[in-house]
Sequence to fold (296 residues):
Amino acid sequence: MTNNPNTAAPDSIKNSLLNAEAQLRNAGLSEHPQLDAEILLAHTLGQTRTFLRTWPERMLESAHLAQFQTLLARRCQGEPVAYLIGKRDFWDMTLTVSSHTLIPRPETETLVELALEKIPSDAHWHIADLGTGSGAIALAIARERPHCKIVATDISSAALTIASNNAARLKINNIRFTEGHWCAPLANEHFEMMISNPPYVHPDDPHLQQDDLRFEPLTALQSGPDGLADIRIICTEARQHLCAPGWLLLEHGYNQGMAVPTILHKLGYQRVQTKKDLAQNDRVSLGIWMQPTQET
Fold:
């Protein structure tokens, strides 16, 4: 009987992980080769990483090994782990993601934390999440503040499908998803808080050609000639929908900690401030809209 050259030879969990880690290190596109290898193999087997450590000598079926090697090859080309396995942890949730959405990142939890500091635990606020993507921000706030009503907008119908499916799977029912560009779907609604993680990357930023960003939707990353176009639109439009008083919170780039507060000040927001993420980078700017009319 001849061997099929396309069939992977069986190997143990331990050896498969060691080989995978070596391949990822050689490729040079993974910051955490061991972790990536474990996540991909655990996903392939439908098991946990604890299972891999408990049964290191267990032999893999050839079909599983072939599937693992396919995922590994894609990771060696730089494709994000979150897209390969179709999910990413954020806050205390596991969210479905795809190439139609940004991958939720730990620094965005800073945005959620600041929002929750402003929202009383028993509040019945109306809150808008602009450009919701996978729904990460809206879902985290809705879960922590179950009496609040959240409206989550996105221009991508594919992203909204993912976000609404995440909400259904997590049994979070106080969010309404609506399609449109920033505030356009909000009609005459008003909110005690509006929040967004918009595109804010400068088109010449070299990070766009590096690592995970190469695979993420460019429209959710890049914003105009200076990286601030969408932030300007949101800050302008939000005044028509914020209660007086009402908070606007924006995630932005590490080097935009002066530019975004300047935009907020010029448009009439008060108590403007910028907060740092866990890496001590400027990450979130916020201000309160106090004017009883929606004019500046």
Q: What stands out?
A: DSSP finds ten helices and nine strands in the chain.
